[in-house]
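Worked example

This section walks through a single chain of length 335. The input is the sequence exactly as stored; nothing has been trimmed or padded.
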Amino acid sequence: MDFFNELLVPGSIIVAQILAVVVPVLISVAFLVYAERKVLALIQLRRGPNIVGPFGILQSFADALKLLTKENIIPSGSNKIVFIIAPIITMVLSLAGWAVIPFAPGWVVSDINVGIMYLFAVSSLGVYGVIMAGWASNSQYPFLGALRSAAQMVSYEVSIGLVIITVLLCVGSLNLSKIVLAQQTVWFAIPLLPMFVIFFISALAETNRLPFDLPEDESTLVAGFFTEYSSASFVLFFLGEYASMILMSSMTVILFLGGWLPPFDIYPLNAIPGVIWFTVKVIFILFLFIWVRGTLPRYRYDQLMRLGWKVFLPFSLFWVVVTSGFLVYFDLLPN
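Given that input, the structure is written out below as tokens.
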């Protein structure tokens, strides 16, 4: 019994840590949807949600309850097993990346030394859920949306990988906490500003957000890869997409905006807890996500591919060479 008790205690701590991350993320998704609808309403001179709850703040929960109580329809011609598994994979992968995100010093579920590689690998796997959903639906529009998503993610993951290499050259470590601590003097968004811009735009493409939401193009593909989905399955896709948005925003904050570090190391600012700084920065990046959606039109698919392969890829390669040459010439390479 002592042996099992020794196993249970660490296991209970891990489960508590996971819940302490997953539950706030899921609640954040609900408020992100509300914030998006409110910001878009302000951009378009509308009111937005204002009925359910004070200032309409409970509208997202009402929508979730409505969707969950609807019938879950599975097309007769679909591959039923793959059709059901696809949204689950998308949701699980969007939550798995949070295991290595440091919210503050010591506030991380698993502080592994290859955290950035784990995060990059998990975010890359997200396309499998989309491909499975498009293929299993046995419908033309979802399949076309899945093909678009696969090509789009492969194209922009190359640029994201080169951006991450640039940051790693400056840090000398794959640990996310060390990447944050390396920005105590200056945030990487300043010396690596072009890489910061490329990473943010690539994050829009990776999460299928406007102006790069070609896999969900309503004007040509009805709803894209989740056209045939309803009820709880649709909710899982929806949660996965918005959880991925928050995850990519967190990656942007960690890589370029100093993570939990304040902008200046002076008393009124450094007295504020690091987790609050981290949250404020993530909210700012999410606001940019919404702002872009409210102001820019959707790209054509050829424009999307040209931007990824003919602009971002060569420029990212050039900046990696420039950064490495600068670090070697001035003997600034980290030990």
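What to look for: The chain has one domain: 74-329.
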